[in-house]
Design a protein that fits this description.
By secondary structure, the protein is of the alpha+beta class. It has one domain (2-105). It is built from 3 helices and 4 strands. Strands 1-3-2-4 form a 4-stranded antiparallel sheet. The termini are far apart.
């Protein structure tokens, strides 16, 4: 049950920030390294037995930069939520509405394939 709870947590993290021409996201140059909640979640993910299925997406939602934890787990059901830089869920957001999605992190042992 803990595996599924942790997987839900990963998919629940979608974070947004003000998008501008400056390459900083959420006030930092490298959100994977410099945002504590992303770094902490990555560390937790890497200690999970399902870590090879996790990845982090960056995209744009309503003019803001967003982040979303994804999973390519073939036997898991997951829900993807959108949240702001502080982790507050954006209730009306959907991953299908996130534009310009790109993978900005995946574990070294990733089994996910991306086109």
């Amino acid at each position: 049950m803990k595996k599924y709870t942790l997987l839900f947590m990963y998919s629940a993290f979608l974070f947004s920030c003000t998008e501008n021409e400056d390459p900083t996201l959420c006030g930092v140059d490298n959100p994977v390294e410099n945002l504590a909640w992303i770094k902490e979640t990555i560390e937790e993910s890497q200690s999970n037995s399902l870590s090879q299925y996790s990845y982090l997406i960056q995209g744009s939602y309503k003019g803001e930069t967003v982040f979303s934890w994804g999973s390519c787990c073939p036997f898991c059901n997951s829900i993807v939520l959108v949240a702001d830089c502080q982790g507050k869920v954006i209730e009306d957001a959907s991953i299908s509405e996130v534009k310009n999605q790109k993978i900005i992190w995946k574990p070294e042992n990733s089994v996910c394939t991306f086109d």
